[in-house]
Design brief:
Elements: H1 3-7, H2 21-30, E1 34-36, E2 42-44, E3 50-51, E4 53-55, H3 58-61, H4 64-82, E5 89-92, H5 98-108, E6 112-115, E7 117-118, E8 126-127, E9 138-146, H6 150-162, E10 168-178, E11 187-188, E12 191-198, E13 203-204, H7 210-213, E14 218-219, H8 225-229
Parallel strand pairs: 2-14, 5-6, 5-9, 9-10, 10-12
Antiparallel strand pairs: 1-4, 2-3, 3-13, 7-8, 11-12
The structure holds zinc ion.
Zinc ion binds at residues 42, 50, 206, 209, 211-212, 218.
Length: 232
């Protein structure tokens, strides 16, 4: 399969079946969106930390057809977890997950999708001040990429604080790529994790890195993709 084959896939052919995760990861690799340590080089993150893995979901989700197919895959998984419970609102975080969250809402049959906004005055904080969720409407939280609960909690706090009524959250969070430093992580607070892709990905300072100690070279994914992945 080539990237060109991938971009010619038809969403309707994937509508009613679950794709194996390994097949989805092949798509990621075709888009240079995923790499996992396999015995050679390892990654140097922008922060200077070392890591055994790399995900950039936007490299896949920027393709409208792939976003639709994968949103439907996550929606199928969410449906099998929540049953036929009504979902009135799907809410996500900015920026990378906005279009994907919209696709997930559509695939779930939810009538409304909206996202929180970053607070320009406080890093890590979110705002919810454009729309009011009526009391009694059910709300499902969606994320495109989750490493820790930080963004999940910021979204929830923003909506709880900014909405004029109490918010009726469903006790689940739908996650496209779940990459905590240690698996399993089955819930964040009272929200059960429903993830499409899960990989354990750690990041440590170089002086604590076992791969550096073992002589593995480290490369920045964005500038040295070929050296990191061995992809010619
Ligand atoms: Zn290292």
């Amino acid at each position: 399969m080539t990237l060109n084959d991938l971009l010619n896939l038809k969403p309707e052919n994937f509508k009613n079946r679950d794709m194996p995760i390994e097949a989805i990861l092949i798509w990621f690799k075709l888009c240079d969106a995923y790499w996992l340590y396999s015995g050679k080089a390892h990654a140097e993150l922008t922060s200077g930390m070392c890591s055994n893995g790399f995900f950039d979901c936007l490299r896949v989700l920027k393709y409208i057809a792939l976003s639709e197919i994968l949103a439907n895959q996550l929606a199928r998984k969410i449906r099998s977890a929540i049953g036929d419970q009504k979902v009135d609102w799907v809410i996500g975080s900015p920026m990378a997950g906005i279009t994907f969250g919209h696709d997930v809402a559509r695939a779930l049959g939810a009538p409304i999708f909206m996202f929180t906004e970053k607070d320009p005055n406080q890093k890590g904080k979110m705002l919810w001040n454009r729309l009011a969720i009526p009391e009694g409407d059910t709300v499902l939280q969606i994320e495109e990429l989750t490493t820790t609960s930080k963004t999940l909690n910021a979204v929830r706090e923003a909506v709880d604080l900014g909405n004029p009524n109490p918010v009726n959250w469903l006790p689940y969070v739908g996650i496209f790529v779940h990459r905590p430093p240690k698996l399993p992580v089955t819930s964040y607070g009272d929200r059960q994790v429903v993830a499409l892709i899960e990989k354990e990905i750690w990041a440590v300072p170089p002086d604590e890195c076992s791969l550096c100690k073992g002589g593995s070279p480290r490369y920045r994914p964005k500038t040295h993709w070929k050296e990191l992945t061995g992809k010619g």
